[in-house]
Amino acid sequence: MKFSENWLRQHVQTDATRDALAETLTAIGLEVEETTVLGEGLDGIVVARIVACEKHPEADRLQVCRVDAGQGEPLQIVCGAPNARVGLVAPLATVGARVGELTIKAAKLRGVASNGMLCSAKELGLDTDASGLLELPDDAPVGAAMADYLGLPDATFELKLTPNRADCFGVRGIAFDVAAAFGTTVLPYATEAVPAQIDARLEVGLQAGADAPRYLGRVIDGVDASVRTPLWMAERLRRSGIRPVSFLVDVTQYVMLELGQPMHAFDRALLTGPVGVRHARDGETLILLDGREVALDPQFLVITDADRAVALAGVMGGHDTRVTDTTRSVFLEAAHFAPAAIIGRARKLGMHTDASHRFERGVDPELPRQAIELATRLILDIAGGMPGAVVEAVLPEHLPQPQPIALRRERLARVLGLRVDDAEVARILRALGLDVADSDAGWAVTPPARRFDLAIEEDLIEEVARIHGYDRVPTTLPAGSTRLRAPAEGQLGDAELRRQLVARDWQEAVNYAFVDAALLQAWQLDADSVPLANPLSAELGVMRTALLPGLVDALARNAARQQPRVRLFELGRGFHVAARPGDAPVETPRIAAAAIGPVRAEQWGEATREVDFHDLKGDLESLAGLARTRLTFQPSQAPHGHPGRSADVYRDGVRIGWIGELHPALLKRLGLDQRVVGFEVELAPLRARALPRAGALTRFPSVRRDLALLAAEDVAWGAIEHVIREAAGPLLTEVRLFDRYQGKGVESGFKSLATGLILQDKSRTLTDRDVDDVVARVTAALETAHGVRIRS
Fold first, then answer.
1. Which of 48, 148, 580, 614 has its CA 20 to 30 A from that of 80?
2. pLDDT value at 499 more than 90
3. What confidence category does residue 372 fall into, taking pLDDT thresholds of 50, 70 and 90?
4. Is residue 681 domain-shared with residue 712, that is, in the same domain?
């Protein structure tokens, strides 16, 4: 929210300096992001009128102007502005005045004397427009000081408002907080009803239920829409970050900034009536004010004229019924829309408007009538016209009704850690515009309709705390004791997993839990994704189903910034739609990692090698080692994985995740031109830790028997190992794969796997017959299961 300091001071009287005002606004929760001082150092700059213009004899782009500055004889000024012309009223910096860093002196430009400088808005520090001279109204008093004429000096404050303070999206709303903070009151602001002078009217109706419970409209005939926006109004708009467009549009913008109520003006001649509010229909289209044609669905509200959509309710007006300089009859509208009916609608269309920003957060349902009366008065005073009656449609049962909130003095003192005097509490709440009644335990407080954020006792305690001053709350910690809970030995903590990966040269990343739906589609991981009703942006529209897409996206951004070696991991949650409609989304804790570049940082002691599947497999198995368990791996068919270079990860026969290289086609879609390896597994199975059990060491020796197994190329080692462990029985303590060979002596399509079986019995020494029996069972089982035989 951006506004003029002088405008605010017209609603609340205070002697506070500009710096004190900015500091106090921040202290009470309305953070001042930026303060821009306007109009300082305008001494010697006056209102002037060009009375004659001639072409410069030596320069095509310069003119020699005769300028009346109210000082007797006209001054000769050489000017290069394209809009300099006879009759133009503009600012003149006289000799001796300072404009920025320049001191104006009498000079000759291309041989012609010039005794001052006509100025643009940018040169005076009033605006960014440097396209020409600042054009002032024709009735501006020639010779008057510019600072006095424009109401300067002034400053603009830009507030960073939290979403709950929708009441501060109008200067009037901010005034209540300022009054409470400085111990003053908001000045009266009575908007008298403008009586109808003609019978002209358009009937209005509501067909959207609780989404649009109030709608007001008024016809004003005989308006001169071509009238220029008064300078005082245009300046207030400019200083609030809004460029004036045309008078009727500027009036609605002005009312919105002052009261916080968005409005719209239709050209009455382009409406047939009646006017209504309803939900859009599937496939319905509308051309908006900016010229874009948008396709709508029933999630949108539309303003209709004889059931024809003419505006997108709470977002933007329509192009076909817009007001122009030729408009002579105007239909003003002001409405109340439920926040839930507007949230996310503009973003769904890739838009953001001042109206949607306010309606999404909640606008006072009592403001529409006040806004329409204020706009009417401004139009009649400036552009003339004759108003009809205000026509209102309302569904009282759907309007928010403020409810009393009990504030207990003991609760207030306990939460704040100090006692605030009863009179001060009542003063603060009343200054904020709340209705306060004393009770035995404290106060019964009814918030105004504009304060959507006040619903429970803690909200009122916060109001007292921020206005009384957070700096006055004691800094001593409250006394108390907590019961420490010992961590379960059977569960591996997240901190241990983090330390392990950091020790293995990984860096932790924290990404948004929201991602672009198109990103999940590229990974083919969009099944059962959870869409957001109110996304931060179109690119963050769904909850992530997995961590790897966001992690690889972060990795790609690092790679694009000339980082040759990136190793990122993340602990987070994946989200899926619940199996039963209406249930909360299913959240699954997960851990993921992704890497590109060399496996080691650049060095002299080891040859450079790119990170591969086995490097990541070692890191993942080190995590399993913390849990004293082992993982197994099977070839994966995941669409985002590289065929033959990715695997599904299992613990105790249950799939818990994926590891491998990304598919080259996916890398191309993601804009990556190098190998990316990664893994993602569920945390719960990885956290489960087997507790160590003490036992006596056996005094009987182990026996090792090495086998050269001949297996088909497509038989995975994991499958072979599983058969060996099942067939060998309890005497097998370990299986070791220590060589893999293909070449001379091994037929094409096969591989030789050198495998070591470690056998041991705790009660006796094994005999050759015991070992031979185990080997026989293993070889027979391998032959039967996978056609694996002993290599001769």
1. 148
2. yes
3. very high
4. no
Both 449 and 525 in one domain: the answer is no
> Do residues 330 and 225 make contact, with C-beta atoms less than 8 angstroms apart?
yes
Q: What is the pLDDT of residue 606?
A: 81
The answer to the question of residue 193 being in a domain is no
Q: Is the dihedral of CA 715, 721, 722, 728 positive or negative?
A: positive
Residues 80 and 161 reside in one and the same domain = no
Whether residue 175 has pLDDT greater than 90: yes
* Nearest-angstrom CA–CA distance, 689 and 686: 8
Q: Specify whether 512 is located in the same domain as 607.
A: yes
| CATH number of residue 671's parent domain | 3.30.930.10
Element housing 444 (H / E): strand 442-446
CATH number at 722 reads 3.30.70.380
Q: In what helix (H) or strand (E) does residue 683 lie, and over which residues does it extend?
A: helix 683-687
Q: Is residue 431 part of a domain?
A: yes
Q: Is the pLDDT of residue 36 over 80?
A: yes
- Indicate whether 670 belongs to any domain: yes
Whether 658 and 513 map to the same domain: the answer is: yes
CA atoms within 13 A on the CB side of 363: 35
**428: helix, coil or strand?**
helix
Domain that holds residue 164: 2-39+155-182
Task: Tell whether 197 is covered by a domain.
Answer: no
Together in a domain, 394 and 415: no
The 10s digit of each residue's pLDDT in 202-220 is 999 999 999 999 999 999 9
The pLDDT of 65-71, averaged and rounded, is 91
Verify that 218 and 326 share a domain, yes or no. Answer: yes
State the average pLDDT over residues 629-654.
90
DSSP-assigned states of every residue in 354-386: HHHHHHHH---TTHHHHHHHHHHHHHHHHH--E
The interaxial angle of helices 457-468 and 422-431, nearest 10 deg, is 100
Mean pLDDT for the stretch of residues 736-752? 90
Q: How confident is the model at residue 313 (pLDDT cuts 50, 70, 90)?
A: very high
- Comparing CA positions, the residue from 627, 636, 688 lying closest to residue 657 is 636
Q: What is the mean pLDDT of residues 12-30?
A: 93
Vertex 370, ends 367 and 374: CA angle to 5°?
135
Of the three residues 398, 427, 458, the one that is the final residue of a domain is 398
Residue listed under structure tokens 């016809």 = 219
pLDDT of residue 284: 93
Look up the pTM and report it.
Answer: 0.68
Are residues 97 and 112 located together in one domain of the fold?
Answer: yes
| Structural domains counted in the chain | 6
How many other C-beta atoms can be found within 10 angstroms of the C-beta atom of residue 430? 15
DSSP string, 492-561: --HHHHHHHHHHTT-EE----SEE-HHHHHHHT--TT--B-SS-SSGGG-EE-S-SHHHHHHHHHHHHHT
Instruction: Please check whether residue 770 is in contact with residue 776, taking contact to mean a CB–CB distance below 8 angstroms.
Output: no
Does pLDDT of 695 surpass 80?
Answer: no
